[in-house]
Structure formats: structure tokens, C-alpha cells
């Protein structure tokens, strides 16, 4: 099984520390989401995989060995700042990039045509990139990361600027690449989308790892969540003042509650009964957005990296 | 007139190049998402040939081949090539037309003129480079009228007066003025000899007297044709170096501002990307230069122009050698400069200062080419890599440089090019992925 490891990456820009001893790994066969607030160091870490950032410390390994140029040719990269030659034809551009990644002329031409077909822009293969719509430019850009059938895909914000149809197309591509045994790492701010797309996530903040694990693991850990609706109390006044209960959302009277000791579901249910007829009561998993916010909040307070195995909350 | 023309061409060339640079740096759309517009947009429906990459080895070869293909089929290249060909043609054909001498001078003769004097007048022609035809005129008035009408170039009246329709200035070096002065002297002398009662044979000997050939202890200077040739070669060098150096700058800047550099550098090292770009644009330049030289040679053959009589294989080789060496030296500098800028607008502020040594070298060398007498400054500049591409070919075409001087200068240039390339790659590596702030000199030095 292929594996990408980032080991103790440290990068300082003058007084700013972009990456601080960042270590995590990306396993093959699954889609890994890479999350973090703006400026957390996601782009710097992704660039480091391609040697585009000079590291102050740390190393990037592929299957246990330091990454070489030959390895990088087998990687696919979608940078945050999209870049294509404006005046080149879409197919020609993909052929060129395929050849730079070591494909033969024939293989590059057929791979370029194949990806344009698959992403639904075969009709624009002979168009200059600058004449394409923004969404189609994005598709060409995605194809440029895939054209050489890479073993590792690193995609920086692949969903930004895409319509729902485009997002579905990208999700389908990522999933199929993972199923084909590739390593797939992508960053995003659109957390609810990430939840559907990826099996595991890495969350960093201020250059440090704050959480890592499968979506399943992370979602079932942490404080329990309840959704409770008491008829006639749209404001959720009944829940105020309950010890260990925090209202995280109020959807027209359906309260999303985060429980911490001494509260437990039974005590909350009793309090709800006392307030009126309970029309909705459910135990919920953490959403990825909640995992993210809590991890970032914890990490920000304690500056200590944790993994799902150790528990996100400390 | 013919001595001002090359200077006019030179000044026009410089202004034209500056104008092109302004347009180039201003007109390109900086980002793909900026949509249509800019120089790279072909007319709709223009068929684009498929990219078949050249069979060059390695990824440097791939980069160079892409650069060559994309550039060579672009509109900028096609128009630029056309302009270079027009300018080369103008430099060959225009002087040939302007310098076309009236080879026949018609001399009207009114009144008596003895046979020996007539023969002496006709014999004056070859010394000036013309053929003299005597035209009998019935009277002085008729001769004057013909002069005014331009039927004849000058008239000898009654063997005692020479009349011309031009101001009689001693500084006028036109064939007619020279012939007029010569005929006046010849007829005066001839009539005096007649008056001295010499026999016809004696008079013929004396009127046939010609000044002795002059020999100088100074070595003979290069002829006009050599000077013209070296000047045309200089123009070619100037255009090529300015145009293609600007392309390396804007090409690097395009890759940086369109952010494709990040995609490319994920797959190949900066040095190879930069080298491929320099080589690819260089190949385009040599294609254009080759076309220009071929057209120039063809035109010279076709028009039987003597403008490029100095076009020896040695001169061509020297010009093309220095096109390669000069491009190699400058391309790195321009490419590195391009990587330090962020936007196409900044290209302008870089191109002009970088162009100064090129313009300086061109003008100093052009002065030497036009005078045919290179100054000590030109001999010094011929060993400095920034100016050698202009100074050394001129020295070669004027026969003022020996083979070892040429080789020494070329060796200096090659050695400096390696140093410049190393520095340029360091600057490029530090700057190409960096946006927002210009990389300061101090940061570059610290690396």
C-alpha cells in the first residue's frame, strides 16, 4: 500500500511560523480531507510535498523513502492558484503536462482526450483555455492533475468555484481514484461537502496538527449531541440554564444540544418533558464542521496536537 | 542623403523597438480567468496545428519544444518576422535605389570645340564614374534651354564657357558637379594648348595627362560595401536581441502571473524549466534570423545590389555566432528579471533599463560601422559580453579583428554566460513562486 508521510515539517517566514512540526500520513485507498482555518498552513504543507516550499526542518516521505523528482512525476497536483497557459489549446496543454510527467506522446494524447471526455468538455478540446468558462477552466485544471494517472493526488481547494454539478464530478473522480488504490489528499473549506466526500480527515491550525482520523471515528467521539423539540417553545427557553447543556443551533424550535458532564441524555429528556410535550428527540453524531470547530478551538487553547486515537477533547 | 539614411534607420529602429515593447508589456491578459483579449488571441476560426513535440531529449527539450511551437505559430512572431524582413529589405533595396547614379552625362556643345578637346572631355568621364555623351547644340540659347529642360547636364559654349543648371558649389560631390569642374578645367587647358600652337599630337599628350595614382602609407580602410554589410548585420542583431530577450522576460512573467509555474515546477526543477524556455525562444530567434539572412542574400542576388558585397561567409558566421552568444548572455538576465515581477505591467519598468546596454552597444558599433573606422572604445567594448555582440561582428566585417581576438571575446562571453546563468537560476528559484512582494536584492544575496 502506498503511503505519503509528512514528518515534522517546519517552515518559518521571518517571525511567522507557517508549519510547526507538522506530521501526518495519507494512506492509499481512501480520500483524505485536509482541513484548517485560513492561514493554517494547508497550502504550505501541500507545496512542501512537491518541493515548492523550502523547509526549515522535516521531510516528506513516499513509501518510507524521501520523495525524489521521479516520485513527484508520479504525483498529481492541483494548486490553490490555478494555472494554465491562457493561449494553449486545452488538449494540447494536457498533452504537454502528461509528457512532462513522463508519458509517451501517444499515451499523453489519449489520456488527455480521455480525461476531457470524462469531465464532459471533450467538445472544447480544441479551444484555447482563456476562451473557456471559469468552470471549464477548472475542469481542465483538474484533468491536468490526473492526466498522467498519478499514484498520489494532492488537490488544494478543488471544489472552490465549482457549481453543484462540478462538485459532484470532482467527488466522483476522487472516489474512483481512491477505489483504484491511489492516495488522495484534498483541502477544503466546505466542510459539509468534505464530510460526504472523504473517509478520513486531517485538521491543522496555525501550522500544527489538531486532529486526524476517519470521519466515522471523529464523528462518534466527543460530547454527545441531541436534537430535541418541545412543542410550543420555539425559542428553546426550556433548555436555558440546564447544567452541562449548550445550545449550538435552533432550527425553528428543534434545538441541537451539546452535552457535557453532569448532563446526559436522560436528564435532558426529563427536563424537556417537564417543559411540555416532546415532539422530537434524537441522538446525533458530530458533524465534521463541529469536529473542525472544536478541534481548532482546543488546539488554539492548548497548542497540542492530538489524534482521534487519543481523543479530540482533552 | 545616403550618409544620413542609416542613422535615420537606426533611430527609427530604436523607437520602433521601444514601441513594440510598450505594446507587448501592456497588452497581454495576465491571467487565464481574465478572459479574452491580449496579443495571444488568434482570429476566430484560425486553424491551429496540433502540438507535436520535437524529439529533443529530456524535459528541458519538452519545454523548449513547446516554447518553440507556440511562439513560432503565434501572431507576434509572424508579424515580427514580416517586419524584420521589411527592414532588411529596406536596408538593401532603398540605398540601392537612392544610390543609383546617372551613369550617362550629356554635355551640350555649342560653337566650335577642337577634336582633341572633345576627346579630352569624353575622357574625363571614367575618372568620375560616368559615361560622357556629347550633344551638338545649334546655339548658346538652345544649349541654355536644353539645360533648363534637363535634356543635358552641362554645356560648353564656344569653347570659352561651361554652364550648368546647378549652383556651382565646390562642396557638391554629385557626378554632374564633379564632371562640370573637370570639364571646365579640361576645356580651359585644351583651348590654351591650342592657342600655344602645339601640334595636335602634342596637345593630345598634354590634355591626356591625368593625376598620378596616390599611395598612402596608412593601411587601406574598408570600403562602403563592407560598412553597409556590417550595418545591416548590426540592425539584425539589434532587432533579434531586443525582441527575443523581451520574450524571455514576458514569457517567464506569463508563467508566473498565470501560476502555471507552480504546476510545472511540481514536475521538473526550476533550472530545467528556465533552460528550456531560453532554448525554445532562442530557437525561434534563429529561425527568424535564418529567414532574414536568406531573404537578404536572395534580394542582393536578385537586385544585383552592391550593398552587401561585403557579405562574406566570415561576416555571416560572425553575425550569427554573436546572435547566439549575445542571446545566451542576455536571455538569462531577462528571464531572471521576469521572475521578479508579478504583473505584466511591471515588465515595462524592467525592459527599458535592461535594454540600455543593448542600445548603447548598438549605437557605438553602428557609428563604427558607418565610419568604417572603429574607435578604441569599440575595441574595448568588443571584449565585454553585454556589448560584444554588436562590437565584435563590426570589427570582423571591417577586417579589424583577428581570429584570436574573436575567439578570446567569444570565450569571455561564454564564461560570463555560465556565471550569469547560475545567478539567474538562483534568482529565478527564489522568485518564481513568490507573489505579492518583489524579492529584494538583499534576500537574493542571502541565498
Polypeptide structure, described:
The complex is a heterodimer of chains A (314) and B (447). With 314 residues, chain A is an alpha/beta fold. Chain A folds into two domains: 3-218, Rossmann fold (3-Layer(aba) Sandwich); 223-284, 2-Layer Sandwich (Alpha-Beta Plaits), CATH 3.30.70. Helices cover 34% and strands 28% of the residues of chain A. In chain A, α3 packs across α4 (105-118). Chain B has two domains: 5-27 and 55-97 and 224-446, no CATH class; 104-207, D-Maltodextrin-Binding Protein, domain 2. In chain B, β1 (104-110), α4 and β2 (131-137) form a beta-alpha-beta unit. In chain B, α4 runs antiparallel to α6 (175-195). Chain B has helices spanning 5-27, 58-72, 75-98, 115-128, 140-149, 175-195, 200-207, 224-257, 260-265, 270-303, 313-340, 345-371, 376-381, 388-397, 403-431, 441-446; strands at residues 104-110, 131-137, 154-157, 161-164. The chains are: A alpha/beta (314), B mainly alpha (447). Chains A and B meet through α2, α3 and α5 of A and α2 and α9 of B.
Tell me the Rg of chain A in angstroms: 23 Å
Percentage of residues in DSSP E strands of chain A: 25-35%
Shape category of chain B: elongated
Could you tell me the number of beta strands of chain A?
Answer: 14
Largest interface, counted by CB within 8 Å of the partner chain's CB:
A-B, 35 and 37 residues
Number of helices of chain B: 16
User: What name is given to the CATH topology of the largest domain in chain A?
Assistant: Rossmann fold
**What is the 3D shape of chain A?**
elongated
* N-to-C CA distance of chain A: 32 Å
Order of helices and strands of chain B: HHHEHEHEEHHHHHHHHHHH
Unreliable parts of chain A: 300-314
Using the coordinates above, name the CATH class of the largest domain in chain A. Answer: Alpha Beta
**Biggest sheet descriptor of chain B:** 4 strands, mixed
Distance between the ends of chain B: 56 Å
For this structure, what is the CATH homologous superfamily of the largest domain in chain A?
A: P-loop containing nucleotide triphosphate hydrolases
Amino acid at each position: 500500500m502506498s503511503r505519503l508521510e509528512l514528518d515534522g515539517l517546519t517552515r518559518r517566514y521571518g517571525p511567522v511560523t507557517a508549519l510547526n512540526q507538522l506530521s501526518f500520513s495519507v494512506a492509499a485507498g481512501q480520500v483524505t480531507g485536509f482541513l484548517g482555518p485560513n492561514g493554517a498552513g494547508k497550502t504550505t504543507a501541500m507545496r512542501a510535498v512537491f518541493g515548492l516550499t523550502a523547509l526549515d526542518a522535516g521531510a516528506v516521505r513516499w513509501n518510507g523513502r524521501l520523495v525524489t523528482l521521479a516520485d513527484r512525476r508520479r504525483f498529481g497536483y492541483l494548486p490553490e492558484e490555478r494555472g494554465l497557459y491562457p493561449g494553449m489549446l486545452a488538449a494540447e496543454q494536457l498533452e504537454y503536462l502528461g509528457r512532462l510527467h513522463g508519458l509517451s506522446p501517444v499515451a499523453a494524447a489519449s489520456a488527455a482526450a480521455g480525461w476531457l471526455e470524462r469531465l464532459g468538455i471533450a467538445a472544447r478540446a480544441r479551444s484555447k483555455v482563456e476562451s473557456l468558462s471559469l468552470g471549464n477552466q477548472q475542469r481542465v485544471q483538474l484533468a491536468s492533475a490526473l492526466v498522467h494517472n498519478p499514484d498520489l493526488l494532492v488537490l488544494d481547494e478543488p471544489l472552490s468555484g465549482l457549481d453543484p454539478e462540478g462538485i459532484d464530478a470532482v467527488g466522483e473522480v476522487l472516489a474512483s481514484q481512491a477505489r483504484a488504490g491511489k492516495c488522495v489528499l484534498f483541502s477544503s473549506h466546505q466542510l459539509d461537502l468534505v464530510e460526504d466526500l472523504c473517509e478520513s480527515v486531517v485538521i491543522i491550525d496555525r501550522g500544527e496538527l489538531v486532529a486526524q482520523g476517519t470521519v466515522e471515528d471523529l464523528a462518534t467521539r466527543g460530547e454527545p449531541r441531541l436534537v430535541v423539540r418541545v412543542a410550543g417553545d420555539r425559542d428553546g427557553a426550556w433548555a436555558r440554564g440546564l447544567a452541562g447543556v449548550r445550545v449550538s443551533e435552533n432550527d425553528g424550535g428543534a434545538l441541537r444540544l451539546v452535552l457535557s458532564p453532569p448532563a446526559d441524555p436522560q436528564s435532558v429528556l426529563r427536563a424537556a418533558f417537564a417543559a411540555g410535550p416532546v415532539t422530537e428527540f434524537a441522538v446525533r453524531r458530530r458533524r465534521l464542521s463541529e469536529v473542525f470547530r472544536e478541534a481548532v478551538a482546543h488546539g488554539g487553547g492548548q497548542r497540542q496536537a492530538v489524534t482521534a486515537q487519543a481523543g479530540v477533547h482533552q | 542623403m545616403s550618409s544620413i539614411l542609416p542613422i535615420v534607420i537606426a533611430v527609427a529602429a530604436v523607437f520602433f523597438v521601444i514601441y513594440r515593447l510598450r505594446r507587448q508589456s501592456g497588452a497581454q491578459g495576465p491571467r487565464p480567468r481574465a478572459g479574452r483579449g491580449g496579443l495571444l488571441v488568434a482570429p476566430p476560426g484560425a486553424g491551429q496545428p496540433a502540438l507535436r513535440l520535437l524529439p529533443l531529449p529530456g524535459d528541458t527539450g519538452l519545454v523548449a519544444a513547446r516554447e518553440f511551437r507556440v511562439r513560432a505559430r503565434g501572431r507576434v512572431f509572424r508579424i515580427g518576422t514580416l517586419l524584420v524582413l521589411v527592414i532588411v529589405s529596406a536596408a538593401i533595396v532603398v540605398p540601392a535605389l537612392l544610390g543609383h547614379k546617372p551613369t550617362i552625362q550629356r554635355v551640350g556643345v555649342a560653337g566650335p570645340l577642337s577634336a582633341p578637346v572633345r576627346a579630352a572631355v569624353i575622357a574625363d568621364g571614367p575618372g568620375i564614374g560616368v559615361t560622357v555623351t556629347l550633344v551638338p547644340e545649334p546655339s548658346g540659347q538652345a544649349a541654355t534651354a536644353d539645360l533648363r529642360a534637363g535634356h543635358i547636364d552641362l554645356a560648353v559654349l564656344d569653347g570659352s564657357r561651361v554652364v550648368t543648371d546647378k549652383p556651382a558649389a565646390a562642396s557638391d560631390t554629385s557626378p554632374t558637379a564633379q564632371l562640370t569642374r573637370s570639364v571646365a578645367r579640361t576645356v580651359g587647358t585644351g583651348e590654351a594648348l591650342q592657342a600655344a600652337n602645339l601640334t595636335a599630337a602634342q596637345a593630345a599628350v598634354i590634355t591626356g595627362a591625368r593625376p598620378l595614382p596616390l599611395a598612402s602609407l596608412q593601411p587601406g580602410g574598408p570600403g562602403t560595401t563592407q560598412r553597409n554589410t556590417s550595418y545591416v548585420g548590426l540592425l539584425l542583431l539589434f532587432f533579434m536581441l531586443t525582441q527575443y530577450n523581451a520574450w524571455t522576460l514576458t514569457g517567464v512573467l506569463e508563467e508566473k502571473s498565470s501560476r502555471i509555474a507552480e504546476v510545472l515546477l511540481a514536475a521538473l526543477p526550476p533550472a530545467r524549466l528556465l533552460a528550456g524556455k531560453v532554448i525554445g525562444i532562442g530557437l525561434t530567434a534563429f529561425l527568424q534570423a535564418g529567414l532574414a539572412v536568406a531573404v537578404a542574400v536572395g534580394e542582393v542576388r536578385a537586385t544585383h545590389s552592391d550593398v552587401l558585397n561585403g557579405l562574406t561567409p566570415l561576416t555571416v558566421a560572425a553575425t550569427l555566432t554573436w546572435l547566439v552568444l549575445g542571446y545566451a548572455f542576455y536571455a538569462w538576465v531577462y528571464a531572471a528579471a521576469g521572475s521578479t515581477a508579478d504583473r505584466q505591467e511591471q515588465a515595462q519598468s524592467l525592459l527599458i533599463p535592461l535594454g540600455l546596454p543593448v542600445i548603447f552597444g548598438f549605437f557605438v558599433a553602428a557609428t563604427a560601422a558607418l565610419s568604417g573606422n572603429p574607435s578604441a572604445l569599440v575595441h574595448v567594448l568588443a571584449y565585454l559580453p553585454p556589448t560584444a555582440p554588436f562590437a565584435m561582428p563590426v570589427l570582423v566585417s571591417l577586417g579589424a579583428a583577428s581570429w584570436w581576438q574573436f575567439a578570446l571575446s567569444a570565450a569571455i562571453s561564454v564564461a560570463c554566460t555560465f556565471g550569469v546563468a547560475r545567478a539567474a537560476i538562483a534568482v529565478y528559484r527564489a522568485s518564481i513562486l513568490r507573489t505579492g512582494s518583489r524579492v529584494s536584492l538583499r534576500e537574493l544575496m542571502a541565498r
